[in-house]
């Protein structure tokens, strides 16, 4: 039988609400616990049965009190055989990393059911000194620890090995090594030639036949007289003295025959000290080696007698036959000190050659470069003094190539004095003839420094500075001077160019002009700097404003204004420091390519450029 039903007949009897909330990125439930395979979850997520995660598990805040794994854990394996099983196809490592830069310890610790048993750790202190540690006894760093420092030192029984290599401060009796008492215990019977032997084995190896090969006489030092036989040597020692080749006495060392002394290494001198009656004597015999001269200079044939108290040599002899002996006077003629310095007429030389008195030589050459020398007697080329550095006269610290602290004279006469009659003239440079005769016309030129603000260039004659009549200063390449500065008479202070009798402050015989400065084409406001030249040119590429600067009182200036190819250019402003007759500026020629010349005089009292001339239409 079929019946007609409506959709409302199939509606649920009550409303069902979902426990999960869906978002655009996922689904979540945060109002209780979730159980998979169990109806009574005891944690936020409880899974009863196996789980398979293909992308790994990320757990934040994993701590021992709230996060744990029951059973074995495998990393790189699906069948862990131990509580923690790590597997990999290549090198497999466990990495412990601290977030601190230093003063840290990364460790693996070992516990029983109630306490810590020990640890394996790496410690890095605040100075970045690291060490690897194996700590038994509840992890204490004591005498039971093993330490490997970053410098390679290893300590067993000591936490601070200070000696390179292996440092053991405990007995290792199980293997027969007594490190504390410096011996090896329980050594077995040797098998190979390099094996150690014990005392019993050594004593049993010495037989009566072996002892028969040992013979000698009392007080003689023994030696091997053959491969297996020990007998007397030539050295006799009775405890009171030592003799070689004899048993006789005469000193602590007695030698019958020649005595050859030498150093095996060959790099140090041989020294023999002399004593008499147990009292030290200052004299010492020096035999230099081929490498080290001991103050004498290296050479196998050199010899010296040295006084240790005075610190010098009485006698020195070399292969060249040079001999230095004490003189019969208080000071020695020549002394070679132990430091290697040579002194003449002094017992305490302070340099390689120290002469207390005069020294004579034709030329003094630089040791390393003979291009530099001093030739005191030279009066022609080459020069008397050639040096690569600075030369100081009157100073030990020259600051320039030639540094003179005092006067410089060229042919200074013996009768030259200042106005007060003094011969000491400080801080000046003089150029004089060979002689000065009072009342004559011969003179000289000098540079002086009269005060802190002045350097004076002056002339004089009669042998007095500032006391005679000043002489003219002339600059000339021939007899006829190019320029004359008058230093006396009614025209003193005048300068003549091309004339020796300037009647004005500046007298010029010949042409005089100022070089023209071309300022180019100006299209914007332009400043004319008259310090560049008294004559300047501007091409007007537009109507512009002008400004004048750096005028000198009484200065005459010429400005050429040229129209460009377009023309019709004007000066829109001459500036506030330009004045015109009746206050009216001239009208410029505006025809293309035409030039106007305008003359100015600078009025120093009013600080203005006054227009005094206008020539147009060139």
Description:
The protein is flat, with a radius of gyration of 55 Å. It starts with 20 loop residues before the first strand and ends with a strand. The model is unreliable at 325-333 (pLDDT under 50). The strands form 15 sheets. Strands 7-8-9-10-11-12 form a six-stranded mixed sheet, with no helix packed on it. Strands 42-44-46-49-50-48 form a six-stranded mixed sheet, with no helix packed on it. By secondary structure, it is mostly beta strands.
Short descriptors:
mainly beta, 50 strands, six-stranded mixed beta sheet, single chain, 618 residues
Give me the secondary-structure topology.
Elements: E1 21-22, E2 27-28, E3 34-36, E4 45-47, E5 73-75, E6 84-86, E7 104-111, E8 116-124, E9 130-135, E10 146-149, E11 154-156, E12 166-168, E13 177-178, E14 183-184, H1 199-205, H2 208-211, E15 220-226, E16 229-237, E17 242-244, E18 253-255, E19 270-276, E20 279-287, E21 303-307, E22 312-317, E23 323-324, E24 335-336, E25 342-344, E26 353-355, E27 364-365, E28 373-374, E29 385-386, E30 391-393, E31 402-404, E32 408-410, E33 417-418, E34 429-431, E35 443-451, E36 454-461, E37 464-465, E38 473-475, E39 483-485, E40 495-497, E41 506-508, E42 517-522, E43 526-529, E44 535-540, E45 544-549, E46 556-563, E47 571-573, E48 578-579, E49 595-603, E50 608-615
Parallel strand pairs: 3-4, 5-6, 11-12, 17-18, 25-26, 30-31, 32-34, 33-37, 40-41, 42-44, 43-45, 44-46, 45-47, 48-50
Antiparallel strand pairs: 1-2, 7-8, 8-9, 9-10, 10-11, 13-14, 15-16, 16-17, 19-20, 20-21, 21-22, 22-23, 24-25, 27-28, 28-29, 34-35, 35-36, 38-39, 39-40, 46-49, 49-50
